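Two proteins, back to back. First:
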Amino acid sequence: MENATYAVLTRQSGLTSQLRVVANNIANLSTTGFRAEDVIFSEHVAALEGGHRSLSMATAAAHNVVSSQGTLTQTGGPFDLAIEGEGFFLIETPAGERLTRAGAFTPNENGDLVTMDGFRVLDSGGAPVFVPQGAGPVGIAPDGTISAGGQPVGQIGLVVPADATGLVREDGVRFRSEEGFDPAPEGRMLQGFLEESNVNPILEIGRMIEVQRAYELGQSFMDKEDERIRSAIRALGK
């Protein structure tokens, strides 16, 4: 296989990955707390023997989580929380502590504050957040402090990944931080609000069209290259 074919194949593979990411972004336009992703392309240059020019190939193995703020929608729910600025909520899952921007919470039968999937919400030290029942109106301050009947009873943790490029999506709204996390120096919580998806639909649809056209161009090159090789084989066989 010729070097040009290798280069185009790696390009097609990267475009396929990018198209998959763009399609997932579009599919989650209405998902509360969803963070859009970009694909990071990297170039690999290999030296060739015999004095030939080097071979350059691209891969798209890394993803970048878009950090732009999503629209904040008022719900009035006492346990609905939106983050304004930097930071993630810390939650406990069977696989370990995870980060999320989806703040639709509710107390469970034990009084623990949990997500819609039943995962417990944690404070910045990793302890479950408890909301006493029947203690009066619940208020949540911008720093996450929970008060019941005017008395503070706990604080919801707000954290940032130690390495922003080390976030790994595990599902639509949950992330694993490969390098751990630290308390968020900035950012505030808004009670009675939820953050919508930060996907820009116009931008994503434009990207999808661009990637599809680039893929079609590469496929056209592959088809022409295949026909050229077949013609050469037929000519040599005569």
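And the second protein:
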Amino acid sequence: MKKALCILLSIVLTAACVLPAAAADGACDCGKAPIIHVYGIGNTVYDGEKSVFPPQGGTIAATVFTALPLLPAFLRGSLNIRQQERALRAAARIFSPIAFDKNGDPATPAAARFTYPESVAHEDGEPIYFDYDWRLDPFVVAAQLHDFIRFVEAQTGHDGVYIVAESMGAMILTTYLSVYGTADIKGAVWMNGAYKGVASCSESFSNQNSFQADSLYTYLIQQTGIFGSSPLLCDLFTGLYASGLLESVLRPVEKAARQLADNGALTRFMQQYLGRIPGFWGLVSAEDYPAARNFVFPTAESQQEYAVLLTRLDRFYNEVSSRVDEIMTDAKEATGKIGVICGYGEVITPVTKDNARQSDSIILTEDESNGATCAPLGSTLGNDYVQAVDDGHSHISADRVIDASTALFPDHTWFVKYAHHQVLYGSYALELVHNIFYSDGFDVFSDPAFPQFMVRDVRTDTVSPLTSDNGGQKTVEPGFAARLFTPVFKAVRVILDLNAKLFAAG
């Protein structure tokens, strides 16, 4: 017995000496902790082997087939009960395959796929990508991110990681930090961040959408990927706008949409589909959340029916969206290595109540930057404008459009003009991220190659420092054919307006 105890004691003592040594040998001494890149929304949702979202051709065709008979009613600006139900059935074709239940959990087998990488290489600073099902409760995704961070640490031998969070991923990062803090985080960069909401989503949920002809025209004309390769299409659309026909079409469409909201049909649709998806609620701003909650769940009965979901949504509002500045400030103080990268100069998706605001085409620049002062699109702050916060540095852009002194982190916030939301800035962003993470005290004044304000050349897709000479307006000029289309569309507009008046009178 004594011999057995001695052997057991020897094993324990040996393990006590060997295991710490083995752990030390497993640690990485490369001096560069791994970088995890948290994706934004957009990964495909599959049901088995079938892609169900974004919708495929068959689903889109079925939706169009269901909705097409409603076109005359929309152009009149009025839908009867049967037409309203048909409109909702058309929309349901898009969202029913990814539906959630009343508690905010998936109601179908459909899911976005993500697997851990077989191996993790990090020495060269290449990001390790974390993906997720964007529909899920942000707290659920934050827990998944926590597990992934621990996996990367175990694979690389590091005791912490850097995080780059893009778009919706920025909201996931702030959620993660609110729960787990910075124990495993050595630094963070928020890029095109959706941590303060996305206007198109936030205003849709709170019933504040607006459809304006000038905003739609400017949005589509400015996106050179749509019209840049088709001058004739550009002229055609310009004719629609210049003739007033575009406005004549949108006016009754907006009226019909308002009808769906006023009579509760839109609320019923939200309760059954979009309003059950916690991930979408994560894109509703703290300012709009109370109004959105009341619009989607307006009655005591609906609030009781969706009590579990509302508890989850309220938690996100109380612990994350209403505390973004506090969460980010804590991260800065704890790590000392943070950065915010924003886009501006783009027209925002034209369904919001104020489309003259600076954005990256999806998210408002003011929100991405946590409070930078921005001139309206097409204008400047003025030559006599004085920087709002005098901190001893200049934070006004060369085109006098942005005053970054009012941002949460004026010395750590970078802006790229004409970098729309889908642009990741290529090598510029990766080099900037490396500087922020792998240098001490890197800020907007540290390197002339990475000043606070940059501009993207949309022709070459390259980024360079912004000057007073290279930050001009990005436009697509209509051609001569636009003048030919305009009078034709004016005649059509007169007919449509007359029909609308006759319908209203009859």
